[in-house]
Amino acid sequence: MERVPVPTRLYLQDGQAMLQTVRLPASVYEAPFLSDGLRQGLSEGDAARSAVSCPVKDLPEEGALPAGLIFHVSRCGSTLVTQMLGTLPGVRGVSEPEALSLYLLHCAQGACAFDAEAFRRLIKAFGRGAGPGGRYVIKFSSWNVLFLDRILDALPGVPWVFLTRDATEVMASNFRNPSAPLRWYRSREPWFKTCFPDWPGEEPDAPEAFFAGCLARYARKAREHEGPRCLWVDYARLPGMVHSHLLAHFGLQVDAAQRARMEEKGRYRAKGNTRQPFVPDGEAKRAEATEAIREAVKRWLTPPAGPAPESDRADSG
Questions:
Q1: Total-model pTM
Q2: Distance between CA atoms of residues 195 and 167, nearest Å
Q3: What is d(CA 261, CA 88) in angstroms, rounded to the nearest whole number?
Q4: Cβ neighbours of residue 201 under 8 Å, at least 6 residues apart?
Q5: Exposed/middle/buried for 221, CB within 10 Å: 0-12, 13-18, 19+?
Q6: Among the four residues 116, 153, 219, 286, which has the most C-beta atoms within 10 Å?
Q7: Main-chain phi, psi angles of 228, to 5 degrees
Q8: Would you call 60 exposed, middle or buried from its count of C-beta atoms within 10 A (0-12, 13-18, 19+)?
């Protein structure tokens, strides 16, 4: 089985960011989240013996930048999009690599200095061994969009998408299974103040208000950088918009057989039991939303955080 150098750990040493890589099967990138693939890959055999570490600033300069970047509000089809693109020959889907999140957090805390060139080299590390053409796309964690200024400045010319969904549905999903910002809010971990330094505001103990405000921040940050490099993707238009808009936006070409493989992937759940057919759950999520969630959406997300501009929308048929 082909093994490639995979970033497995980012840590600080003497005030500088260090990256550990381990030679693992390239299939670790096929998991819904890279962290899942790493757990599996690192648990097998003597993989850890191939571990090497290097300062991020000294990582190799050569290598291609990503074909595209994926940002999102969470629970909006971003994992599905990444996995659909990952079915294409020579295209690797990298889903929420923890090393990128930690680098952004450590820099935001002042534990190390943000360096655009070092960040580019860190990004390129996820494309090593991607096969002929070396094409890859990176899906960031939802809250990474708060650092969009730095990310885009470091990756000039790289196209990106921002996935949105009905805010009430996103809220209901997150209150059933919290994403990182909501967990941080409840535990008041140090990362919380790093990403949300001006909270608490007038409602320090209102998780619904906090998370609705969080979604509003994501959308505002994405709107600040609208332009030719950006495409808004509405969950309600998936998976069709992957074919009609996103492929061209990322400069990816497919033939009939490759398109069929992507469509087959789009018929199934992207998480959990990935052989279970996907069933739209928007109506169910809206029904389970509490009154507090509905009120928070009305207050913090008017107008809504989405959908995409009409010129960027496409039917999913």
A1: 0.93
A2: 20
A3: 8
A4: none
A5: middle
A6: 219
A7: -60, -25
A8: exposed
**Sequential DSSP letters for 183-241:** HHHHHT-HHHHHH-TT---S-TT-HHHHHHHHHHHHHHHHHHT-STTEEEEEGGGTTHH
Beta carbons of 128 and 63 less than 8 angstroms apart: yes
Each residue's pLDDT tens digit, 58-100: 999 999 999 999 999 999 999 999 999 999 999 999 999 999 9
Q: Lowest-confidence range among 15-24, 32-41, 61-70, 276-285? A: 276-285
pLDDT of residue 313: 34
3-class DSSP state of 156: coil
The domains found in the chain, sorted by start residue, are 61-301 (3.40.50.300)
The continuous run of DSSP H or E covering 41 comes out as helix 34-42
Q: Which amino acid is at 154?
A: A
From start to end of 102-159, where are the E strands? 135-139
Which tokens go with 68? 């595209």
How far does CA 66 lie from the centroid of its chain? 13
Q: What is the C-alpha separation between 61 and 205, in angstroms, rounded?
A: 46
d(CA 107, CA 115): 9
SS3 category, 266: coil
